[in-house]
Amino acid sequence: MPCNKSLIHPLSATAMELLWISPVKPRAANVVTVLVVLALLSVKGAESRKGRILESFEYNAMSCRAHSASITDFGGVGDGQTSNTKAFQDAIDHLSQYASDGGSQLYVPAGKWLTGSFSLTSHFTLFLHKDAVLLASQNLNEWPLLKPLPSYGRGRDAAAGRYASLIFGTNLTDVIIAGDNGTIDGQGAFWWQKFHQGKLKYTRPYLIEIMYSDGIQISNLTLLNSPSWNVHPVYSSDILVQGITILAPVRSPNTDGINPDSCTNVKIEDCYIVSGDDCVAVKSGWDEYGIAFGMPTKQLIIRRLTCISPYSATIALGSEMSGGIQDVRAEDITAINTESGVRIKTAVGRGGYVKDIYVKRMIMHTMKWAFWMTGNYGSHADKNYDPNALPVIQGINYRDMVADNVSMAARLEGISGDPFKEICISNVTIGMAAKAKKIPWTCTEIEGITSGVTPRPCDLLPDQRPEELTECDFPPEDIPIDSVKLQKCSYGMHYM
Fold first, then answer.
1. Per-residue pLDDT band at 378 (split at 50, 70, 90)
2. What pTM value is reported for the model?
3. Exposed/middle/buried for 125, CB within 10 Å: 0-12, 13-18, 19+?
4. Could you give the CA distance from residue 414 to residue 317 in angstroms, rounded to a whole number?
5. Rounded-to-integer distance, Cα 183 and Cα 437, Å
6. What is the per-residue burial (b if ≥16 Cβ within 10 Å, else e) of 55-70?
7. Where in the chain are the domains?
8. Any bridge partners for residue 9, and if so which?
9. Could you give the 3-state DSSP secondary structure of residue 65?
């Protein structure tokens, strides 16, 4: 690889001779890189022979990059006090010129990097060192305002617009946000206090939001104390969220973990979430705005998720589901001290649909409800929703689950005149708590079947006869995101 392609930072010529940052991709490229280094050393003489590698790292990614730079090259200061908002945006703006020339990476070394919101570019990787911490600024001037999402019609906290997320991007292709378990700290207490005091004129920012984009990877990071939702891909496709740890106080408001929203072909796997709201919340727009926008979330797989959320759900479908939710597959899920395992939230006026939902191999410890479906979730964007817009809930499949210390097995409440249909529950054993409800199942306006379920379900979910016992469905074929192969990417930072 030519040297001029790996050297990109706005330094003086003298400084540029001192710092060389070179990406290394396949093994064959390693030989080329070594030869280039040796050639440089021979030219520079004895002084250059003192060169050594100060930092290097490898990670798995959808794409490797031809160019790299450090945030320090653009004036970044990792002291936890100096604002780096301009440094991040200057770096990304500079690196955007390489989008069509192998892409670029911005490296964040160890340190505490205070910053407000900044926007990403295409064919770009943001990589955090394991001891790097992005600290969200508490200066409101460093948070640009955005219009409400068109599928929502208004902000979640206030009717007006919303603050841009800490890491933001729109209309992008091939974007990676990764790290060696580096940390993004939203310093959310500042925002939670304003929320509880009713002092917010605009909706709180999220930690990561990518809009109208495709080819997104968010992996191997720790997300702390988000002001609101943590990860929000919206109107996007081909998304991998992998190896993420999300931590927030269990009473923090609306700190949802991962919220795929009007997205297609998404995989969420190997994540650990402690949250004040739903660990994964699947969405697609709110009431008449979501119906008009008409973009569903579909082809979503959630795999190997561990959730702790005493006041909300492990996996929630809705309540903003007016664009539709279809083909969601969840497997190998663990819920601990969480209000509900799988929850479907909708209401009259939502319209849309939730269908073809498949969940298997779920373990639940200390739950209020194992299963919860409600058709009377009353939160509306405004008073202009259509009371005749009834949601369609059908094809809900739960199988191969074990739970213990559960207060109530299920609360399943459809809508009068609009029952939830084709519910299937099989091979499920729910151990009730010592002070559990006397009636473990409550069911209204639902239709379906069960087999091998303990305790005995309600009469609206009749147990099949022994000779007709069958497992509920779970599709055997993969969705396209499962076929994406990650590359081994390597970067080394050299001082000569």
1. confident
2. 0.89
3. buried
4. 14
5. 42
6. eeeebbbbbbbbbbbb
7. 67-241, 278-477
8. none
9. coil
Cβ atoms of residues 73 and 106 within 8 Å: no
| Tens of pLDDT, residues 301-355 | 999 999 999 999 999 999 999 999 999 999 999 999 999 999 999 999 999 999 9
Residue 43 has pLDDT above 50, yes or no: no
Residue 371 backbone dihedrals phi, psi, to 5 degrees:
-125, 140
Same fold, 67-241 and 278-477: yes
The encoded tokens of residue 292 equal 């008009």
Mean pLDDT of 92-105: 98
At residue 56 the predicted structure's pLDDT band, cuts being 50, 70 and 90, is confident
The domain 67-241: what is its CATH number?
A: 2.160.20.10
- Do residues 491 and 67 make contact, with C-beta atoms less than 8 angstroms apart? no
Instruction: Return d(Cα 129, Cα 254) in angstroms, integer.
Output: 28
| Topology (CATH) of 278-477 | Pectate Lyase C-like (2.160.20)
Residue the block writes with tokens 């931590």: 247
pLDDT value for 54: 56
Report which of 249, 243, 238, 329 is spatially closest to residue 282, judged by C-alpha positions. Answer: 329
Alpha carbons 95 and 115: distance in angstroms, whole number: 18
Are the beta carbons of 271 and 128 closer than 8 angstroms?
no
Number of Cβ within 10 Å of residue 288's Cβ equals: 20
Rounded Cα distance, 180 and 93, in Å: 24
d(CA 381, CA 322): 12
Rounded Cα–Cα distance for residues 321 and 294 (Å): 10
The C-alpha R_g of the chain, in whole angstroms, comes to 25
Residues annotated as part of the active site: 277
What would the two tokens of residue 348 be?
């009259």
**DSSP three-state, residue 488:** strand
Q: Which single residue is written with the structure tokens 């269990």?
A: 250
Evaluate whether 98 touches 122 at the Cβ level (below 8 Å). Answer: no
Largest CA distance in the chain: 86
* Token output for 440: 């473990």
Q: Which residue has 């689950």 as its token pair?
A: 401
Burial class of residue 83 in the structure, from the number of CB atoms within 10 Å of its CB (0-12 exposed, 13-18 middle, 19+ buried): middle
Taking alpha carbons only, the member of 22, 10, 83 closest to residue 56 is 22
- Exposure of 452 in the CB half-sphere (CA atoms within 13 A): 15
CA 103-104-110 angle, 5° bins? 155
Beta bridge pairs of residue 408: 369
Q: Which of 338, 237, 243 shows the shortest CA–CA distance to 295? A: 237
**Neighbour tally for 46: CB within 10 Å:** 7
8 A C-beta contact, residue 247 and residue 274: yes
pLDDT tens, 380-391?
A: 999 999 999 999
Cα torsion through 430, 433, 435, 440, rounded to 10: -10
